[in-house]
Amino acid sequence: MYPVIPIGPLSLPTVPFIALLAIWLGLGALARTGREVELDPDQLWNFGLLALGAGFIVARLWHVVQFWAIYRIEWTLIFSPRPGAFAFWPGLIAALVAGYSYLIWKRLDPIPVGAALSVGLLVAGGLLEIGAFLTSTTVGTPSDLPWALAVFDVTRHPVALYRAAGMFGLAGLLFWRGDFSQPRRIVGWAIFGYALLRLLADGFLADAATISGIRISQLVALAVALGAVMLLSGSAFEEAEGQDG
Hints:
Layout: E1 4-7, E2 10-13, H1 14-34, H2 41-66, H3 68-71, H4 88-106, H5 110-134, E3 149-151, E4 154-156, H6 159-177, H7 183-201, E5 210-211, E6 214-215, H8 216-244
Helix pairs in contact: 1-2, 1-5, 2-4, 5-6, 5-7, 6-7, 7-8
């Protein structure tokens, strides 16, 4: 477990450092991919920063209100940057609302933005998975395979690295080989690829929640993958109808 990352004479806390790096590179990938669908990179940076800012603020305030009895006594904790001091779902909803509101304001088509966002999220997610590996937040099942790595004195599947490699590979594949003239299909392939990755990688996840012996995360991934197949099929059908017309 690496709670800090040594860089020369400095020791940076792993989680905030990886999170900031993920935001920076994810937004960069979003803006770079946006050029492929003829979107203004500056508008995409603004879109991403606005969504992230709204998400972080609401997530933090929600947590403060939820645990006000504690913060009222130790009010300095309100400014704590700890990851556990943010409410995930309220923050996510706020980010989605703020981001979509920006698209409406700037009259941007959400489908091409979604195609660019797919690549940006995969890049950012891959970096966050590396952070999860470094901090042992995500732990795999014991293994004696050559690439298994020691975690808590036991060699285990590096599940977080499986996920990270898959997300980086999928982002690169979409960026360099994807047909951005069909942004809906880019979104569909991104969702399908990520769901398939989780379906495979989470089979090596330790202490996973299960239903009747089946991992819940894999069930969700399977459902999402099937939904993505339907999205891709519908997109292909619409494309064929357009050509016939």
